[in-house]
């Protein structure tokens, strides 16, 4: 089984915000789990985040 290391590095470092040392310390299974590709629930999408923000807006208190 081959890995597209360039794509995995981009997903781990850019997408997940890992430092290179953190990325290289992971096993491929751990990285795939973090990316949501190991059969668990997928990471929340931007659309779902926006939907939740509309449903549960932050309550801003007037400071006057």
What attributes characterize this protein structure?
64 residues, 4 helices, mainly alpha, elongated
Describe this structure in a few short sentences.
The protein is mainly alpha-helical and 64 residues long. The chain has helices spanning 5-15, 20-25, 28-34, 46-55.
Structure notes:
The chain has 64 residues and is mostly helical. The protein has one domain. Helices cover 53% and strands 0% of the residues. The protein is built from four helices and no strands. The longest helix has 11 residues.
User: What is the overall silhouette?
Assistant: elongated
Assembly form of the protein:
single chain
Helix and strand run: HHHH
User: Unreliable segments (pLDDT under 50, ≥5 consecutive)?
Assistant: none
Beta content: under 5%
Domain tally: 1
Q: Please give the count of helices.
A: 4
What class do helices, strands and sheet pairing give? mainly alpha
Largest sheet: none
Cα gyration radius (Å): 17 Å
In helices, the fraction of residues equals 40-55%
- Total number of beta strands: 0
Mean pLDDT: 85
- Measured between the Cα atoms of the first and last residue, the distance is 62 Å
What topology does this entry show?
Elements: H1 5-15, H2 20-25, H3 28-34, H4 46-55
Protein name: Putative phage protein (TIGR02216 family)
Organism: Rhodovulum steppense
């Amino acid at each position: 089984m081959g890995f597209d290391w360039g794509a995995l590095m981009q997903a781990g470092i850019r997408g997940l915000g890992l430092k290179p040392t953190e990325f290289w310390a992971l096993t491929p299974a751990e990285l795939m789990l973090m990316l949501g590709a190991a059969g668990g629930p997928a990471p929340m999408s931007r659309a779902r985040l926006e939907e939740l923000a509309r449903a549960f807006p932050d309550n801003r208190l007037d400071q006057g």
